[in-house]
Write a structure and sequence with these properties.
By secondary structure, this protein is of the alpha+beta class. It is 39% helix and 26% strand. It binds adenosine-5'-triphosphate and magnesium ion (MG). The site of adenosine-5'-triphosphate (ATP) has 17 residues, from strand 5, strand 10, strand 11 and helix 7. It holds the Pfam family tRNA_SAD.
Length: 870
């Protein structure tokens, strides 16, 4: 059975059991501070489990793009080495939100596997939670009794907390689970050891395919468990593993999910899969990481230096490095595989097709730059080796290579061992640990439990229409971070404060208590469906009715910048073409930043046109047409622009100004006239094929023009002119150039005179023509003169000192013959004498200079130099 068919059957099986099929959420998570990437199908439903939100159907089914490379679930180091863990994989799931529980979940899982997919019952094992004393939890007898009806009791195994109690993270929904394992070993192997012994023992042919989680608890900040308001089912089946079983393969990589990519890798790199262990690992790593990175970029996450971007960069670099070392690929090649991946998966994941160009470009550029880094790293490592006195390279040096140059540690170890050197692994681990500790301390945030004042799960946002309103605090909690210290988070029954999102910063403002006390709201953010207000101190009376007031000026300017961003987007598409797509944005009261796909620099001429386009829309005074509740599909049909990697509900909000129409949750001006004026301030590149524009509007633009005009007035004043500064400046420049020329020729004449004087004044010391003195000549003229003098003598040793703008300069010349004969070195002389002028320098053995910041030390340097020839 083809993988496409396998996926389809899963979804339609549960559709027939009254589940609604929903799309995969994006793999990159944007509004949950506890999670960077989706690591399980349940993430997007977290709020339903916690009871913060209600699903439209209590039964759902889907296939979810997951990435397990950071945090609680991290399989990165396994990937490629084994045959059944991936970084990015699809998790098939069925969900019950307070609807059915263990009985149906087990019954249907069994029915699907054995009757629809027709998996031989004799290869299946299941596990149930055995209980845990510390948590005060008993064995899951209920699950055991249900399983008994389907499978012989000797195939129902006990599982411990590690394997059979599922948790999403340090906090959050959790519960006991039942796993289904397959034993795909040969009959011969099975005769030797029973499969029972191998379940959950990391055996590559006895593996878990499906996990049925029975969500019953919430793990709190103090790590205690509380019962959830209702019981839920959350199941996750690894799609690639299921394909392996159904296609009778021993490895996920031998299924049709991977074989087309592997064939393409073989062709491009001229290698063969299945012959040699190292080559095989490299090919699996590349095939796997290609998927993770491509899906991440399609979701809008570009490789970068921090956060999620850095994780993606590291995955890609791991693939590049395996190709470099084991497939001998010294040029970019991974980007060439995107085509095959796209062909294979675009039916289920259309984003791969629409984002293909940018995925290829970004990967190619990353490959280029990392291959350069590898090259430099190899040279540095050569240096380290040749300077090392022992056969063991210190962990500190290796860490430096790793940390500063991104040079992978396993590559360092490999190269060292090839050259007969050892790496001080322990020392390296120490350094790594120290660094981790430093960054953990810097970023750790401790989150307390919520104190609930009022039970209320519908916190309404009223900030599109109101900038102040009466509110009550429904719950609050304390958070502590190294950076900000102690803070509190407040949730209201309703709020006018816009939470950071869609690129727009969160609102600031204050709460006013009935007695006039004011509590400042420093920021507003979204956490899943909650709108969280940040304050430094709690108000005295938490139960009061407060007036919540948004800072109007800052909101007005932010709104102007947000609306201007939409017009900019439209302007770019109109001037540069419709290939322009938004890749990121940041809108604050001070300015806006807009990243978009485009392959060349935007010329000054084009920028002018875009700016003019936006200002024309502003002058047209287009009114805001807003629709807060329109079906997604209808909005798209009407021409609204949606963003990739953004999660939209069934109904969306559209923002329209004239021809510009976008899906957007941000705050906007009522009329484009309120933007006042739009100015582009900056254009640059952020990644291959992605450009960035920064711009200002409203008060920011006013301030900009005021500053310009002030600066202009100052220029006129300084130039003592009333009207034409350009003319004055041009004539000053011409005058300046003429003066420079004149000085140069005067210096030359002066040098000529000096040279004569010097020649006559040279001392004879131990057969050396010597002088040391202070000279008032610019550097270029001095150097010319010294070399001319050097041409006349074969035994010259001179040191000149000069002073310019409070800085000292030493110039030393020693005839080449003397250098050889007397073992003198001008570089060494200036380095040593440099200490008197508090500076340093160097050069060649016959000519060197040193600069310093202490001219007062010149006499001493001049005096000391003679000792070199005495
Ligand atoms: P394992 O012990 O094999 O790592 P797990 O206990 O981490 O699995 P769950 O968190 O229960 O797995 O995830 C549910 C299902 O997702 C698993 O039964 C498995 O089929 C699949 N799965 C988990 N991790 C991966 C991975 N890294 N690559 C591919 N499939 C995976
Ligand atoms: Mg795992």
């Amino acid at each position: 059975m083809q993988s496409q068919e396998i996926r389809k059957q899963f979804l339609s099986f549960f559709e027939n059991k009254k589940h609604t099929i929903v799309p995969s959420a994006p793999m990159v998570i944007k509004d949950d501070p506890t999670l960077m990437f989706t690591n399980a199908g349940m993430n997007q439903f977290k709020e339903f489990f916690l009871g913060n939100k209600k699903p439209k159907n209590t039964r759902l089914t889907d296939t979810q793009k997951c990435l397990r490379v950071s945090g609680k679930h991290n399989d990165l180091e396994e990937v490629g080495k084994d045959t059944y863990h991936h970084t990015m994989f699809e998790m098939l799931g069925n969900w019950s939100f307070g609807d059915y529980f263990k009985k149906e979940a087990i019954q249907w899982a069994w029915e699907l596997l054995t009757e629809v997919y027709k998996i031989d019952k004799e290869i299946l094992y299941v596990t149930v939670f055995e209980g845990d004393d510390k948590e005060g939890l008993g064995k899951d007898i209920e699950a055991y009794d249900i399983w008994k009806q389907y499978i012989s009791e000797d195939r129902i195994l006990n599982g411990n907390k590690k394997d059979n109690f599922w948790e999403m993270g340090e906090q959050g929904p959790c519960g006991p689970c039942s796993e289904i394992h397959v034993d795909i070993r040969s009959a011969e192997e099975k005769a030797k050891v029973s499969g029972k012994e191998l379940v959950n023992q990391d055996h590559p042919e006895v593996i878990e395919v499906w996990n049925l989680v029975f969500m019953q608890f919430n793990r709190k900040a103090d790590s205690s468990l509380e019962e959830l308001p209702a019981q839920h089912v959350d199941t996750g089946m690894g799609f690639e593993r299921l394909c392996m079983v159904l296609q009778g393969k021993k490895s996920n990589y031998d299924t049709d999910v991977f074989t087309p990519i592997i064939r393409e890798i073989e062709t491009i790199t001229n290698s063969k899969y299945g012959k040699d262990e190292n080559t095989d690992i490299a090919i699996r790593v590349i095939a796997d990481h290609l998927r993770a990175v491509s899906f991440a970029i399609a979701d809008g996450q570009l490789p970068g230096n921090t956060g999620a971007g850095y994780v993606i960069r590291r995955i890609l670099r791991r693939a590049i490095r395996y190709g470099f070392t084991f497939l001998n690929e010294k040029d970019p090649f991974i980007y060439k595989l995107v085509d095959t991946l796209e062909n294979q998966m675009h039916d289920t994941f259309p984003e791969l097709r629409s984002q293909k160009g940018i995925i290829e470009n970004v990967i190619k550029e990353e490959e280029h730059s990392f291959l350069r880094t590898l090259d430099q790293g190899l040279q540095l490592l050569d240096n380290v080796i040749s300077n090392s006195k022992s056969k063991i390279i210190s962990g500190k040096k290796a860490f430096e290579l790793y940390d500063t140059y991104g040079f992978p540690i396993d590559l360092t170890a490999l190269i060292l061992s090839e050259k007969g050197y050892d790496l001080d692994t322990e020392g390296f681990e120490n350094e790594l640990q120290k660094q981790k500790e430093r960054s953990r301390k810097a970023t750790k945030i401790e989150t307390g439990d919520w104190h609930v004042l009022i039970e209320d799960d519908e916190e309404e946002f009223v900030g599109y229409d109101m900038l102040h309103t009466k509110v009550k605090i429904t719950r609050y909690r304390k958070i502590t971070s190294k950076k900000e210290g102690e803070m509190y988070q407040l949730i209201f029954n309703l709020t006018p404060f816009y939470p950071e999102g869609g690129g727009q910063v969160g609102d600031k403002g204050y709460l006013e208590a009935p007695n006039g006390d004011v509590t400042y709201i420093l920021d507003t953010k979204k956490e899943n469906s909650l709108i969280v207000h940040f304050v430094k101190n709690l108000p005295d009376n938490l139960e009061a009715v407060f007036e919540a007031v948004v800072d109007t000026d800052s909101r007005r300017n932010t709104a102007a910048n947000h609306s201007a961003t939409h017009l900019l987007h439209q302007g770019l598409r109109s001037v540069l073409g419709t290939h322009v797509e938004q890749k990121g944005s940041m809108v604050s009261e001070d300015y806006l930043r807009f990243d978009f796909s485009h392959f060349t620099k935007v010329s000054a001429e084009e920028l002018k046109q875009v700016e003019e386009f936006v200002n024309a829309r502003i002058r047209e005074q287009l009114p805001l047409e807003e629709n807060r509740n329109i079906p997604y599909q209808q909005a798209i049909n009407e021409g609204a622009v949606a963003l990739f990697g953004e999660k939209y509900g069934d109904t969306v909000r559209t923002i329209k100004f004239g021809e510009s129409m976008e899906l957007c949750g941000g705050t906007h001006v009522k009329n484009t006239g309120d933007i006042w004026h739009f100015v582009i301030t900056y254009e640059s590149a952020v990644a291959a094929g992605v450009r960035r524009i920064e711009a200002i509007s409203a008060d920011g633009a006013k301030q900009y023009f005021e500053n310009q005009s002030e600066a202009y007035d100052k220029v006129l004043e300084v130039l003592k002119t009333k009207n034409d500064p350009v003319k004055v400046i041009t004539s000053l420049q011409e005058e300046n150039a003429a003066l420079k020329k004149e000085i140069e020729s005067l210096q030359k004449a002066k040098a000529k005179g000096l040279k004569k004087e010097l020649r006559n004044g040279l001392e004879e010391v131990n057969g050396v023509k010597f002088t040391a003195q202070k000279i008032d000549l610019d550097q270029g003229a001095l150097k010319d003169m010294v070399f001319e003098l050097g041409n006349e003598f074969k035994n010259l040793f001179v040191l000149f000192a000069s002073e310019n703008n409070g800085k000292a300069l030493l110039t030393c010349y020693i005839s080449k013959e003397l250098v050889a004969e007397k073992d003198l070195n001008a570089g060494k002389v200036v380095r040593e004498l440099g200490k008197y002028i508090q500076g340093g320098g160097g050069g060649q053995p016959f000519f060197a200079t040193a600069g310093g910041k202490n001219p007062a030390g010149i006499p001493e340097a001049l005096e000391k130099v003679k000792s070199y020839i005495l």
